[in-house]
TrEMBL record:
This is Uncharacterized protein. Belongs to the short-chain dehydrogenases/reductases (SDR) family. The lineage of its organism: Eukaryota, Fungi, Dikarya, Ascomycota, Pezizomycotina. Keywords: NADP. GO terms for biological process: fatty acid biosynthetic process. It comes from Diplogelasinospora grovesii. It holds the Pfam family adh_short. Transmembrane segments: none annotated. It comes from the Eukaryota. One of its GO terms (molecular function) is quinone binding. Coiled coil: none annotated.
Amino acid sequence: MASTAQGKTVIVTGAAGGLGKAIADAFLAAGANVVICDVNPQRIAAAEEEWTKSYSGKFLTKQTDVSDETAVQELIDAAVAKFGRLDVLVNNAGVMDDFSPVGACSRDQWDRVLGINLNGPYLTCKAAVTQFEKQQESQPQPQPGSIGGVMVNIGSNASFMGFTSGVAYTVSKAGVMALTKNTAGYYGPKGIYCMALLLGGMHGTNIGDAFAHGLNMDMFQRVQASSTPYEPGKTDTAVASVAKYCLFLSDPDIAPSANGSCIVFNRNWPEA
């Protein structure tokens, strides 16, 4: 039985490494055309080298800042120019804060975290739905079982829990959940679906890059003390499982029923 991702065009943001690359790998293995963006040129080059061996002609990479509206539109345009259309968007690009509470959070950190984690999904969803609607207008008689487009946003425990990180990350991921539900409510009747995966801690992603510059240890220790400690290999969410879930949600038989869902996928950490 052929994969439902076969021949679809998928954009995954922040996908030259970590979770994003695992998601991109899953779609490529399922036969999709995959477009990734990232801000790290070294990671992009490494992904290109790896994929050229197995998926030549099936992928496109672009160095893109998702908080830049012009750059986001160029990403969408490049995907359509190469593969003819867009079917799925996975908003994975994200950065962590340093666990600063509001009184200690610098304006620079606030702007950077919300710029990538919340403005980024807003800009990519905005550009994607515009493209989805354009495609629908050009095909007034959709094929049986076809859908207009799917957007999967990567949220977090912080989307629904107020004390798992610093203020900037918490607000950004809560906003992602609101963006998901509002978008699903308006575009669902048009056959364009939006959902989110609210993830727990994950080992082997790039989100911890933010910690290289230090942590607000007082806040970090208070957060750690308020719940079951995070233990890689025991409480972490499997990256490969998240990738499979994104593929599952993009299935045209699943997406309509999942529309608006903000699915907690965190290995029950912290315990519900």
